[in-house]
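I trust your eye. Have a critical look at both lines of this record:
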Amino acid sequence: MIAIEHGADALGLVGHMPSGPGVITDKLIKEIAGKVPPPIATFLLTSETEPHNIVSHYKKVNTTTIQIVDELEKREYETLRKELANVKLVQVIHVVDESAIEEAIKVSRYVDAILLDSGNPNLIVKELGGTGRIHNWEISRKIRQSIQIPLFLAGGINKDNVREAIETVQPFGLDLCSSVRTGGKLDPEKLEDFFNAIDF
């Protein structure tokens, strides 16, 4: 509710992850999703990579959107579309290098939006978000110019660099995590400072 009061258009509800902050139980995700008023979107962040496991995870929580934070096995998006016809799909692409451009173009044919983040799924313990690091926004801009669907930008965005992020990439939306938290919890003052910074 604090996030909504400060101007958030969507809430990211973090399911089980191999690393990173903000993980909550599926029971709590379902409870929050059930109480959030429209038109605020609720995003289930899932680290599942097999379509049937993603469907199973979703059915426990009933959010409006699924944010797939790892690479979907065999790109079986059609399975998800068939099983969850009314649920929006957002695929996270971790911008490690320029190979992210081709990956984003390919995936953009199957999903409703792309989200660019600064994790590294190639590590032994995968980083799938919440790193607090920025990535190369020039690559992000190239991706935004190359796809025909909305693009969200994440990764180290804070009140001090958000204008540069918007001007450089021109994303559809922004995804925040560590920059608006204190002691692992949302910080109302940091949220207010952030929204003031984007009030051009």
